Predict the 3D structure of the following.
Amino acid sequence: MVETGVVSVGSGTVTLAQNPGSFGTLNIGTGGAAGTLEATVVTSGSGTARVNFNHTGTVNFAPNLTGSLDVTKLGAGTTVLSGSSTYSGGTVISDGALFLSNLGDNASVLGSGTVNVQAAGTLGGNGTVLGDTTVSGALAPGNSPGAIHFASALTLTSDAVVKMEIASASSFDQILVDGLLNYDGTLQITFLNGFDPTGQSFQLFNAASVAFGSQFAQVTTLYPGSFDTATGAITFIGVPEPGTLTLAGLGVLLTLLHRRKTRA
């Protein structure tokens, strides 16, 4: 489906790979602008089914994804999923961004299969991911701000970049993990509307368990403070200074990195 094309089945269902041994693929775009699918459900039959999102710009995709199909995010565009999906196949985000728009812990957006966010991919938004998730690209929870819920394990690799926003004492991004959380990579924190977090703590992560010894290699933020990997909370303890803060280890202070000019 490309450009301005529209395929409409009303409140009906689109079935891919109906017969045993067959293969069916739904392409939302082929690298450029995508068309529109108007349907309630996209599902798999008895064969092998796949949905590819491969487009530029932003595509809002509302149909529920069900069955055993796989989902792949290709291309530089952003796909926004708003359906409550239960598909059991895997999800691979190899390029661009895949955002969730469902609110609430009971909304399954990415189904129960494994989720793999590769180096050039981004997973973000508000919603629930049922399957085990590995992030080697970017993870951007919320929608200025909000929460993303992982019903299984979440593994952040050394290449992962977690982007979180703090707007106020009661409004900030969160990552909720029902399974094992494995920290690594970089945590980037941005403050919205000039908010000053000095003297306050924020529960950015809430996990059932944390992998022993795991930690972020670096935390970048404007204000000095400390991040506790066991509790998932960050506490800001001082006033901002020019530069970037970095964190290595449990409960240690963020160290300010900045260059000082010397007098001639």
Summary: Residues 1-8, 242-264 have pLDDT under 50 and may be disordered. The two ends are 64 Å apart (CA to CA). The chain has two domains: 1-97, 132-264. The CA atoms of residues 88 and 258 lie 48 Å apart.
